[in-house]
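The freezer alarm interrupted the setup, so I double-checked each line after restarting. Inputs confirmed:
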Amino acid sequence: DIQMTQSPSSLSASVGDRVTITCRASQPISSYLNWYQQKPGTPPKLLIYAASSLQSGVPSRFSGSGSGADFTLTISSLQPEDFATYYCQQSYTNPYTFGQGTKLEIK
Amino acid sequence: EVQLVQSGAEVKKPGESLKISCKGSGYSFTNYWIGWVRQMPGKGLEWMGTIYPGDSDTRYSPSFQGQVTISADKSISTAYLQWSSLKASDTAMYYCARHESLVGAPDYWGQGTLVTLSS
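Predicted 3D structure, all chains:
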Protein backbone atom coordinates (compact mmCIF):
# COMPACT_ATOMS: atom_id res chain seq x y z
CA ASP A 1 0.00 0.00 0.00
CA ILE A 2 1.05 3.61 -0.59
CA GLN A 3 1.54 5.38 2.74
CA MET A 4 0.35 8.98 3.00
CA THR A 5 1.96 11.11 5.71
CA GLN A 6 0.50 14.47 6.66
CA SER A 7 2.17 17.18 8.70
CA PRO A 8 1.50 18.60 11.10
CA SER A 9 -0.95 16.26 12.86
CA SER A 10 -2.47 19.26 14.61
CA LEU A 11 -2.26 22.98 14.17
CA SER A 12 -3.49 26.01 16.11
CA ALA A 13 -4.17 29.15 14.14
CA SER A 14 -6.19 32.34 14.24
CA VAL A 15 -8.88 33.73 11.97
CA GLY A 16 -7.17 35.48 9.08
CA ASP A 17 -4.00 33.38 9.23
CA ARG A 18 -2.47 31.67 6.21
CA VAL A 19 -2.13 27.95 6.84
CA THR A 20 -0.30 25.22 4.94
CA ILE A 21 -0.69 21.46 5.42
CA THR A 22 1.66 19.04 3.69
CA CYS A 23 1.13 15.50 2.49
CA ARG A 24 3.87 13.13 1.37
CA ALA A 25 3.33 9.84 -0.49
CA SER A 26 5.63 6.86 0.02
CA GLN A 27 6.03 6.62 -3.77
CA PRO A 28 5.23 8.92 -6.70
CA ILE A 29 1.52 9.27 -7.41
CA SER A 30 1.59 11.79 -10.27
CA SER A 31 -1.17 14.32 -9.49
CA TYR A 32 -3.70 11.82 -8.13
CA LEU A 33 -4.03 13.57 -4.79
CA ASN A 34 -7.24 14.80 -3.19
CA TRP A 35 -7.95 16.91 -0.11
CA TYR A 36 -10.98 16.66 2.18
CA GLN A 37 -12.37 18.63 5.09
CA GLN A 38 -14.28 16.83 7.82
CA LYS A 39 -16.24 18.36 10.69
CA PRO A 40 -17.45 16.28 13.64
CA GLY A 41 -20.47 14.12 12.87
CA THR A 42 -20.41 14.81 9.14
CA PRO A 43 -18.95 13.02 6.10
CA PRO A 44 -15.76 14.28 4.45
CA LYS A 45 -16.18 17.10 1.95
CA LEU A 46 -14.04 17.18 -1.19
CA LEU A 47 -12.05 20.42 -1.44
CA ILE A 48 -9.33 19.79 -4.00
CA TYR A 49 -8.94 17.01 -6.58
CA ALA A 50 -6.09 16.12 -8.89
CA ALA A 51 -3.69 18.00 -6.59
CA SER A 52 -4.73 21.51 -7.60
CA SER A 53 -8.28 21.59 -9.00
CA LEU A 54 -10.84 23.35 -6.80
CA GLN A 55 -14.06 21.39 -6.36
CA SER A 56 -17.18 23.29 -7.41
CA GLY A 57 -18.59 25.43 -4.62
CA VAL A 58 -15.42 25.46 -2.53
CA PRO A 59 -14.15 28.94 -1.60
CA SER A 60 -11.13 30.19 -3.51
CA ARG A 61 -9.15 30.68 -0.27
CA PHE A 62 -8.44 26.93 -0.54
CA SER A 63 -5.71 25.89 -2.95
CA GLY A 64 -3.59 22.82 -3.60
CA SER A 65 -0.24 22.24 -5.24
CA GLY A 66 2.35 19.58 -5.85
CA SER A 67 2.99 16.51 -7.94
CA GLY A 68 4.98 13.32 -7.65
CA ALA A 69 5.19 12.64 -3.93
CA ASP A 70 4.92 16.03 -2.20
CA PHE A 71 1.75 18.07 -1.93
CA THR A 72 0.37 21.03 -0.03
CA LEU A 73 -3.03 22.41 0.91
CA THR A 74 -3.10 26.14 1.62
CA ILE A 75 -5.86 28.18 3.20
CA SER A 76 -5.06 31.79 2.40
CA SER A 77 -7.09 33.49 5.14
CA LEU A 78 -8.68 31.28 7.77
CA GLN A 79 -12.38 31.73 8.41
CA PRO A 80 -14.24 30.48 11.52
CA GLU A 81 -15.90 27.70 9.51
CA ASP A 82 -12.50 26.30 8.41
CA PHE A 83 -11.66 24.82 11.81
CA ALA A 84 -11.94 21.10 11.10
CA THR A 85 -9.83 18.04 10.30
CA TYR A 86 -8.20 17.80 6.87
CA TYR A 87 -7.24 14.61 5.05
CA CYS A 88 -5.26 13.94 1.91
CA GLN A 89 -5.98 10.84 -0.19
CA GLN A 90 -4.17 9.26 -3.11
CA SER A 91 -6.32 7.94 -5.96
CA TYR A 92 -3.37 6.61 -7.98
CA THR A 93 -3.78 2.97 -7.06
CA ASN A 94 -5.89 0.63 -4.93
CA PRO A 95 -6.14 0.86 -1.97
CA TYR A 96 -6.82 4.59 -2.14
CA THR A 97 -5.13 5.44 1.12
CA PHE A 98 -5.68 8.53 3.26
CA GLY A 99 -3.28 10.51 5.38
CA GLN A 100 -3.75 10.35 9.13
CA GLY A 101 -5.41 13.77 9.23
CA THR A 102 -4.52 17.28 10.39
CA LYS A 103 -6.71 18.81 13.07
CA LEU A 104 -6.93 22.57 12.67
CA GLU A 105 -7.91 24.29 15.90
CA ILE A 106 -8.58 27.85 16.95
CA LYS A 107 -5.69 29.56 18.74
CA GLU B 1 -29.45 16.79 -7.12
CA VAL B 2 -26.93 14.03 -6.52
CA GLN B 3 -27.63 12.13 -3.31
CA LEU B 4 -26.27 9.04 -1.62
CA VAL B 5 -28.57 7.94 1.18
CA GLN B 6 -27.35 5.27 3.54
CA SER B 7 -29.33 2.91 5.75
CA GLY B 8 -29.76 3.64 9.43
CA ALA B 9 -27.63 2.91 12.46
CA GLU B 10 -27.24 -0.69 13.55
CA VAL B 11 -26.55 -2.32 16.91
CA LYS B 12 -25.40 -5.91 16.54
CA LYS B 13 -23.72 -8.67 18.53
CA PRO B 14 -20.36 -10.23 17.64
CA GLY B 15 -20.86 -13.15 15.29
CA GLU B 16 -24.00 -11.73 13.69
CA SER B 17 -24.30 -10.87 10.01
CA LEU B 18 -25.10 -7.43 8.61
CA LYS B 19 -25.76 -5.74 5.28
CA ILE B 20 -25.86 -1.96 5.03
CA SER B 21 -26.94 -0.01 1.98
CA CYS B 22 -26.23 3.14 -0.03
CA LYS B 23 -28.87 4.36 -2.50
CA GLY B 24 -27.85 6.76 -5.23
CA SER B 25 -30.10 9.25 -6.96
CA GLY B 26 -29.82 12.29 -9.20
CA TYR B 27 -27.21 10.78 -11.51
CA SER B 28 -26.56 7.71 -13.66
CA PHE B 29 -25.83 5.12 -10.97
CA THR B 30 -24.27 2.63 -13.38
CA ASN B 31 -21.64 5.11 -14.62
CA TYR B 32 -19.90 5.84 -11.32
CA TRP B 33 -17.95 3.72 -8.89
CA ILE B 34 -19.22 3.50 -5.31
CA GLY B 35 -16.51 3.23 -2.67
CA TRP B 36 -16.78 2.39 1.01
CA VAL B 37 -14.76 4.07 3.76
CA ARG B 38 -14.44 3.09 7.41
CA GLN B 39 -13.93 5.55 10.26
CA MET B 40 -13.41 3.97 13.65
CA PRO B 41 -14.32 6.06 16.71
CA GLY B 42 -12.00 9.06 16.99
CA LYS B 43 -9.81 7.81 14.13
CA GLY B 44 -9.05 8.58 10.51
CA LEU B 45 -10.44 7.40 7.20
CA GLU B 46 -9.73 3.95 5.73
CA TRP B 47 -10.53 2.90 2.16
CA MET B 48 -12.27 -0.49 2.11
CA GLY B 49 -13.07 -1.07 -1.54
CA THR B 50 -15.17 0.01 -4.47
CA ILE B 51 -17.65 -1.36 -7.00
CA TYR B 52 -18.74 -0.32 -10.49
CA PRO B 53 -22.48 -1.02 -10.55
CA GLY B 54 -22.53 -1.11 -14.35
CA ASP B 55 -20.75 -4.48 -14.45
CA SER B 56 -20.17 -5.25 -10.74
CA ASP B 57 -16.38 -4.96 -11.12
CA THR B 58 -15.19 -4.84 -7.49
CA ARG B 59 -11.82 -3.84 -6.07
CA TYR B 60 -11.01 -4.48 -2.40
CA SER B 61 -8.32 -3.05 -0.21
CA PRO B 62 -6.08 -5.97 0.81
CA SER B 63 -6.80 -5.03 4.44
CA PHE B 64 -10.51 -5.72 3.94
CA GLN B 65 -10.44 -8.51 1.34
CA GLY B 66 -12.20 -11.53 2.82
CA GLN B 67 -13.54 -9.50 5.74
CA VAL B 68 -16.43 -7.82 3.93
CA THR B 69 -18.39 -8.19 0.71
CA ILE B 70 -19.27 -5.26 -1.53
CA SER B 71 -22.14 -5.66 -3.97
CA ALA B 72 -24.64 -3.60 -5.95
CA ASP B 73 -28.11 -3.90 -7.42
CA LYS B 74 -28.25 -1.53 -10.36
CA SER B 75 -31.98 -2.07 -10.82
CA ILE B 76 -32.59 -0.14 -7.59
CA SER B 77 -29.45 2.05 -7.68
CA THR B 78 -28.16 0.63 -4.42
CA ALA B 79 -24.76 -0.54 -3.26
CA TYR B 80 -24.17 -2.75 -0.25
CA LEU B 81 -21.51 -3.56 2.31
CA GLN B 82 -21.94 -6.78 4.21
CA TRP B 83 -20.35 -8.89 6.92
CA SER B 84 -21.00 -12.58 7.51
CA SER B 85 -19.68 -12.57 11.09
CA LEU B 86 -19.15 -9.24 12.83
CA LYS B 87 -16.35 -8.61 15.29
CA ALA B 88 -16.15 -6.04 18.08
CA SER B 89 -13.51 -4.21 16.04
CA ASP B 90 -16.09 -3.57 13.29
CA THR B 91 -17.61 -0.83 15.45
CA ALA B 92 -17.28 2.24 13.24
CA MET B 93 -18.96 4.76 10.99
CA TYR B 94 -19.14 3.55 7.39
CA TYR B 95 -19.44 5.97 4.49
CA CYS B 96 -20.19 5.37 0.84
CA ALA B 97 -18.95 7.79 -1.80
CA ARG B 98 -19.15 7.93 -5.58
CA HIS B 99 -16.21 8.46 -7.89
CA GLU B 100 -16.25 8.77 -11.65
CA SER B 101 -13.23 6.62 -12.37
CA LEU B 102 -10.72 4.52 -10.50
CA VAL B 103 -8.41 7.52 -10.32
CA GLY B 104 -11.18 10.04 -9.71
CA ALA B 105 -11.81 11.74 -6.39
CA PRO B 106 -14.91 10.71 -4.44
CA ASP B 107 -17.05 13.81 -4.79
CA TYR B 108 -20.40 12.96 -3.18
CA TRP B 109 -20.64 11.09 0.11
CA GLY B 110 -23.43 9.41 1.99
CA GLN B 111 -24.33 10.57 5.47
CA GLY B 112 -22.74 7.52 7.07
CA THR B 113 -24.04 4.41 8.82
CA LEU B 114 -22.94 3.85 12.42
CA VAL B 115 -22.40 0.19 13.25
CA THR B 116 -22.06 -0.60 16.95
CA LEU B 117 -21.10 -4.00 18.26
CA SER B 118 -22.24 -4.80 21.76
CA SER B 119 -22.21 -8.13 23.54
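Quick read of the result. The mean pLDDT of chain B is 97.
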